[in-house]
Amino acid sequence: MSAGAGAPATPVLSAARIVVKVGSSSLTTRQGALDGDRVDALVDALAARRAAGSDVVLVSSGAIAAGLSPLGLARRPRDLASQQAAASVGQGLLVHRYTAAFARHGLAVGQVLLTAEDVIRRAHYRNAQRTLFRLFALGAVPVVNENDTVATHEIRFGDNDRLAALVAQLVQADALVLLSDVDGLYDGDPRKPGATLIPRVADPAELAGLEDRIGGTGSSVGTGGMATKVEAARIAAAAGIPTLLTSAALAGAALRGEQVGTSFLPTGPRRPPRLMWLAHASSPRGRLVLDDGAVRAVVSRGASLLPAGITRVSGEFAAGDPVELVDPAGLPVARGLVNYDAGELPGLLGRSTHELAAELGPAYEREVVHRDDLVVLPR
Ligand SMILES: Nc1ncnc2c1ncn2[C@@H]1O[C@H](COP(=O)(O)OP(=O)(O)O)[C@@H](O)[C@H]1O
Ligand SMILES: N[C@@H](CCC(=O)OP(=O)(O)O)C(=O)O
């Protein structure tokens, strides 16, 4: 694949695997119906990239928007149950439309609906990963959305921008492309005069001070606005994945690797997806308060967390759940998957693993959080 003659290229050009996210506002007409022409144009751009040899995952919003007019709803409902009902009607229509559009290119579509639970629980996330990899191997295009009909307020992503960043880590993508109704990130509200496009963000920290100008949704069907896109780019960048943010109208140019929109460069090394999910997607079920020595061991030496370095435990968790590790002042320093239930831990605190194993049996020689199941948070 080569970028247009003379045009500078973005990291999308050389990406062997790309996750592309499209927002509701780019798929629906002003009246709120699914816009078949726009779906076809997007699918043509994705199919061209597939034909050039890249794996492509589409994270598509639009289920709630597509369900509005069949249900006679004039606007996006505010309550969760009506949004879920609209999503259940709209998701079928959306996938039906994608199936027809990809069929024009001889490509099959695989619907993958994910909840936040699926990214917290290791077994679920491995399942999702296996399905996605098998879809690539079989030549199908995964079309991902949040499983809106079963997600509750507490466990909802609510926006597909962050979901797309997490899917990009899950499939070890080389680039994330976020398509919206605006052609990039601006230094102010793009609907107001004077705002200029930011072509390149080397580190999201550069955006400090712009937060109040990176606003909410510009349409009646979108959800997160620009803020969740910047957050998604930050998550991907920290996992070593570059992000390109532009409009759906420029999808073809973006996927040909042309320099359009805003490029966010990676800020961290590529890391195992499991740890990034732990850092960004998991909701901790409990807190372990560490003494100063344990903080140093975990943060500076990359050691496992042992019972001897824990002073307090709170929360309701079972072995295998994500927990937050905090310093004596209560500041989060790391997250990890805990090896014991909440009920078991208080009796073990402050004691050495040798002593515990001698008294309670070899099962108690385990670390509370193994270093391989632990991710240190940025300070
Ligand atoms: N600084 C900014 N730069 C670009 N767009 C912004 C900015 N602040 C707010 N927006 C708004 O964010 C909107 C895109 O978010 P959203 O409506 O959630 O889109 P989508 O449905 O594609 O996810 C744009 O239409 C724009 O009006
Ligand atoms: N899962 C929801 C999408 C929510 C969402 O993130 O929407 P958008 O801001 O348009 O990307 C739906 O399909 O309607």
UniProtKB/TrEMBL annotation:
Principal location listed in the UniProt entry:
cytoplasm
The record's GO molecular-function terms, alphabetically, read: ATP binding; glutamate 5-kinase activity; RNA binding
GO BP: any one term? L-proline biosynthetic process
Assigned EC number: 2.7.2.11
All copies of the PUA domain together span: 286-365
Keyword annotations from UniProtKB, A to Z = Amino-acid biosynthesis, ATP-binding, Cytoplasm, Kinase, Nucleotide-binding, Proline biosynthesis, Transferase
The residues listed in the UniProt record as binding ATP, with positions renumbered to this chain, are: 21, 180-181, 223-229
Q: What InterPro entries does this protein's entry cite?
A: AceGlu_kinase-like_sf, Asp/Glu/Uridylate_kinase, G5K_ProB, Glu/AcGlu_kinase, Glu_5kinase, Glu_5kinase/COase_Synthase, Glutamate_5-kinase_CS, PUA
Q: Which superkingdom does the taxonomy of this entry point to? A: Bacteria
Q: What does the record give as its pathway?
A: Amino-acid biosynthesis; L-proline biosynthesis; L-glutamate 5-semialdehyde from L-glutamate: step 1/2
SMART domains, from UniProt?
Answer: PUA
Which reaction(s) does its UniProt entry say it catalyses?
A: L-glutamate + ATP = L-glutamyl 5-phosphate + ADP
Q: Where does this polypeptide localize?
A: Cytoplasm
Q: Which residues bind substrate?
A: 61, 148, 160
One GO cellular component, as annotated: cytosol
Q: Which family does it belong to?
A: Belongs to the glutamate 5-kinase family.
Function summary:
Catalyzes the transfer of a phosphate group to glutamate to form L-glutamate 5-phosphate.
Please give the name of this protein: Glutamate 5-kinase
Taxon lineage = Bacteria, Bacillati, Actinomycetota, Actinomycetes, Motilibacterales
